Amino acid sequence: MKKRIFFLCLSLILLFGTSATLAVETTVWFAAFGDYGSNDSNEQAVADMVHVWRDEAEALGIEFRIFTTGDNTYTADGTRFDVDVEPYYGEDVDAGIFCPAPGNHDYHPGNLNAYVAYFSQSSCLSGNGRYYDHRVGNVHFIVKDSNSKSVGNQDGNKIGGVQDGWFLEKIAEEACWKFVFNHHPIVTDGKHFAAQFKRDIYERDGIGENIDVLYSAHNHNYERWDTPMGMVQIVTGGGGKGLNEFRTRTDPLGYIDSAEYNLMHFATLTKVTGNSVLVETFTITGEKIDSWSKTKSCGSGPTATNTPTSSPSATATQTPSSTQTASQTPTATSTPSVTPTPGSTSTASQTPTATLAPTATSTSPMPTPTILMPIIFSDGFESGDLSAWSVAVTGGDLGVTAGAALQGTYGMRAVIDDTNKMYVQDETPDAEISYQASFYFDPNGMTITGSHNLHALFDGSTSITRLIIRYSGGYQLKIWVLGSSWVSGDWFDISDNVHLIEIDWQSASDVTASDGHLSFWIDDVLQETLPGISNGDYVVDAARLGPYCCIDAGTEGVYFFDEYVSEQ
Fold this sequence. Notes:
Elements: H1 2-16, H2 19-22, E1 28-33, H3 41-59, E2 63-68, H4 81-84, H5 86-95, E3 98-99, H6 113-119, E4 132-136, E5 139-143, H7 162-172, E6 177-181, H8 196-203, E7 213-216, E8 222-226, E9 232-236, E10 256-261, E11 266-273, E12 276-283, E13 288-295, E14 349-350, E15 375-379, E16 391-393, E17 398-401, E18 411-416, E19 423-426, E20 434-442, E21 451-459, E22 462-471, E23 475-482, E24 486-488, E25 492-494, E26 499-506, E27 516-522, E28 525-533, E29 542-549, E30 557-567
Parallel strand pairs: 1-2, 2-3, 5-6, 6-7, 7-9
Antiparallel strand pairs: 1-11, 4-5, 8-9, 8-10, 11-12, 12-13, 13-14, 15-30, 16-19, 17-18, 18-30, 19-29, 20-26, 20-30, 21-22, 21-29, 22-23, 23-24, 23-25, 26-27, 27-28
């Protein structure tokens, strides 16, 4: 152990130039990443890199923590933390330095019992284990459960809920630095939409202004956002699971997307040094993809330099060359003001930097650079017609208009004035055993008698899933999935407004198994999972969108659909 510490110290002296640099007082370093519980070589590669950071901090006598931003497991029943976490981070859990946030996949099969039972082994957790805070010196870490309506989260995550009251108390506590971790981003150009109510939480007076960085994930990519409140949001969802493509959206007023990346798995390293913070994100090959820094006066401690810099003679730290870079390069032209947290005495300045990173040596075979979850089909109707679809049954009442746009310029409009079916169908899927679909939907004041179908997956001519809508004191949606027989879920309320609808269908592992499932999200919130489905005989080779079946007389009005995307 002494030999290991010696060589680590020696390598760091070579890296940063002088021992005087190493003597700068550092409060804490911490890693942040999410969407990692994939139990594969990519998760291992990220863990190896994080452990290099951990060992370097240990060698310098610096406190180190690991924070996750959700989706710590991806199994259908949400209980395999001993498989998806333990081999990679079990020693960190035992050491009390592992501090997770819950994601939507952690809630399977509807609660966080298995999550809390496993992670409560880490002394970092406190309270109910779903949301909690943690302190190291003048640094305050706040971990939230952003799964607003998931079964089992009775405290919620909306303004006025139990968790929100707790959160307001924590934000008001005195600290120089405040970092918040949760799963769902408040703004994003990633696969999953960010609902306005999530931004509302931070846009209230004195909330976003008193947070330095909000770390999130849910989208399997990297993003850095400047916000009108002054805090920075980091989306760091590259911990192991397959990466996602970006989407084109209209950014909310005052939110600026300063960096994006999705070519290789990664993690984010944050170093708090007295009155300064440096946030850097590295791929599993050691390539730096983004850097951001901030300094402020906290009323005590040494005056921090603007950003640490590496010694010009440090050559061993340069990572292998790569053409994979962030799609947007950070600039140093903006210096937004940040309202000081209690205990701070001056305005912080923010300047992206380009310092070199410690080389991450991995003890495991390096995985092949990845790896977007393959998109099967997508259509935002921006062509102005339905030509992207394999089949269009319009009856003269289904088409593309600008007035139906829920994203972009055009959307699909379904006019119901009789009981005739209408739909578009994509036949791109090729015997898929895993299928995820998302689309935007607005009931738009439709008058509904009875119930009818809006979306389905097909194996040949056999429908194997259904999404059904009805009106019962309000609009409601329900999913069905076919196994040995049809299994239905519960009815879930939606408002008369725009909603992001997502489903995740998985075939059973073989024809005799009962481990298939269908999961259902509304506005990024998991509503339910129907597990234990005997559907190993089925595959997906078509998807249908629109009111294609069972329209009852008396139903009339106009539906809007937009931005359909399907992935494996």
